[in-house]
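Hi R.,

As promised, here are both runs. First protein below:
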Amino acid sequence: MSLSRHLSRYAISGLLQWTLEYALVLALSQWLLPIAPANIIGRICGALLGFGLNGRWTFVGEGHTAGRRAALRFAAMWIVLTAINTTGVASVAALADLRSAQVLKPAVDLLTAGVGFLLSRHWIYRR
């Protein structure tokens, strides 16, 4: 599958995944939890959706699979990117305020999504 097709499908899947994640982070951080645990919960829910969509639709095809090995690779990537993402969001909240962290979260998400795309295409879903 071509890079443009992977990228466009990753963007569609990512938008659905991100919408779920961001909505949960906003709701949880506004009313129930500090931003860091809210971000982790949102990312867990988004990751569950994203792994399924990317493994069965975005990167489906010759040379790609969404089996156990891909799940382990995805988990390793997710842990590292979630640590980076959550540290970024929590740092903004500590230096500024909750609202700033909520507003800047999409920028942090975009950075980690770019790394996630490259790792997904070239490592996670590869056989």
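And here is the second one, sequence first, then its structure tokens:
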Amino acid sequence: MSVHALHSASNPDPIKQAKIHLAAALRLAVHDGFDEGIDNHFTMTVPGREDQYMVLPFGLHWSEARASDLMVFNEAGDTLEGHGVVELSARSIHAPLHRLTGAKVVLHTHQPWALALNMLQDNRLLPATQTAAFFHERIAYDDTYTGLASSLNEGERLASLLKDKSVMFLKNHGVITVGDTVAQAYRLLYKLEKACRTQVLAMSTCKPLNILEERVIDRVRTPSKDDHYSRAERERLYFEAMMRVLDRVNPGYAE
């Protein structure tokens, strides 16, 4: 078990633990090929402070993210803790999404396979695989790219589209996942990239896709009563496993 286990009693400070998980997610994004260096943002509500958010200071590469690097900001763009300036798109997109949807974690990337699908006029993720079926009716679509986010209005517009969904496709732009925990939101991001990759590869054959029947989709989305692991438990186990990977290949995120 990782020394940074999500359920570990050895680290009772929820803010410290949240910072460790967010820093780990940033490094995992590099490991998985989701990052754009210093661009895009992962944010999380500070535990116990619903109107304050944690983010990596702009200018640091995601591969070097540490828990101690994370700064705290508010929707006004003020730096409340740590060092650095809140990059404009982090404030414009993330703060309203947290406030209006209640999401604890907001992850935004331009990861390649999801973006490739979002470059198409018809960018819908189709339930043609087991993984894609998991996302059926969980994705909100923003079909109008408006340029670089420069005001809170953009985040508020996106929040009005996202509503109670956990994933958003941004046409010509990228993707957003939200969740109650870093583990939940990051596992969505990971599985989403896999689903988009297989669809784009299948579409490249120019042959028709075999869409799953609704009854099959329902079976995929409905947990079995005989399953020993809840969805939350699977999210926890996945993220703990990936932190163990980081402990081997890119340690230091918990510092």
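A quick note on the second one: The chain has a mean pLDDT of 93. Let me know what you think.

Best,
J.
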